[in-house]
Specification:
With 320 residues, this protein is α/β, with parallel strands linked by helices. It has 15 helices and 9 strands. Helix 3 (79-91) links the parallel strand 4 (70-75) and strand 5 (97-101).
């Protein structure tokens, strides 16, 4: 395992890490980068408003209010269309482009996107190459993948093709598409890939605590980490990992955000959902509470109080 302090990325999670959530979590500190929810590309160039909706940070230099860069993630199987949209995203201010080869959703996979592409290593390489050629050399092009679709038999081949096509970095979620999100994550299967590549490899999957971060780095050989659900359960996890890696604290119980402050953040997330349809506006607040229940007993009571509420003002009042 590297003795260098890790860079820590906030994972792109569809329906979860939207703009308000990115603002909240990066505002707490500890993150070096975050990635948008995926923009699904078919066969045409999207208008500016589509990019602005998924990545409002484009109007502020491609960073969150705390200064954390936000890469725009594209998903699809049409190399030319992906390249065209990547070029436009960069023109609009995206500081980096991320390519999704890991989404396990059945709807996405049925249309040949996400982790379904892991069954076609040649297509993965063509996509990365097309996007790399379409954007300036100074703009990073990164990729996120799983170990494979049904198994990890082609993991190293795909990873090497991604590097050969010109990717700047590769993030690996250490489970197959078939594994879904069931524990464990097979961090150790990433070690050979990390050793075979010259570009940075980032480890992702089942990192809930600082101990998990230590073990993921050790088992995978990767220096850098990407946090997903663990970041939602423990809002200060990125900062805790960074402190632990720096040697400033050796405790798993590094400063935990007080519940009163978590409630303030929940209200902020709810306020950020005002543009959503009424029946959906409170869903992400409820969703976050389901993760917070893993680290905060008080979240259980609050979730029970609001789970059947639909009106934003009712949910806000209940959070008080």
């Amino acid at each position: 395992m590297s003795t260098v302090a890790p860079r820590i990325m906030l994972a792109p999670m569809e329906g979860v890490t939207d703009h308000p959530m990115r603002e909240i979590l990066t505002g707490l500190g500890g993150y070096d980068r975050c990635v948008t929810e995926f923009l699904r590309v078919t066969d045409h160039e999207y208008p500016t408003r589509v990019f602005s909706k998924i990545c409002p940070e484009l109007t502020s230099g491609g960073v969150t209010r705390s200064g954390t860069p936000v890469y725009l993630q594209l998903l699809g199987s049409h190399a030319t269309a992906l390249a065209i949209n990547a070029h436009k995203a960069v023109d609009l201010g995206a500081p980096g482009i991320d390519l999704n080869f890991g989404c396990p959703a059945k709807t996405v996979n049925r249309h040949g996107g996400g982790s379904a592409l892991l069954r076609s290593p040649e297509t993965v390489e063509q996509i990365v190459f097309a996007v790399r050629q379409a954007v300036p050399s100074a703009i990073p092009v990164t990729a996120k993948m799983r170990l494979g679709f049904d198994n990890a038999d082609h993991l190293q081949e795909i990873a090497q093709r991604i590097e050969r096509a010109g990717a700047s970095e590769l993030c690996i979620h250490a489970r197959t598409r078939t594994d879904g999100y069931r524990p464990p994550a097979y961090w150790e299967q990433v070690m050979k890939v990390r050793q075979a590549l010259s570009i940075p490899v980032i480890i992702n999957g089942e990192i809930w605590t600082t101990d998990d971060a230590v073990n993921a780095r050790k088992d995978s050989g990767c220096c850098d980490l990407m946090l997903g659900r663990g970041a939602l359960a423990r809002p200060l996890l990125a900062k805790q990992i960074a402190l632990h890696a720096s040697g400033k604290t050796a405790s798993e119980n590094a400063p935990q955000l007080p519940w009163e402050e978590v409630l303030v953040l929940l209200k902020m997330l709810l306020e950020g959902a005002v543009d959503l349809p009424v029946k959906y506006a409170g869903n992400r607040t409820k969703q976050w509470l389901t993760y917070l229940k893993l680290g905060y007993p008080d979240a259980v009571e609050v979730f029970e109080r609001i789970k059947r509420l639909r009106q934003v003002n009712e949910i806000a009042q209940a959070l008080h």
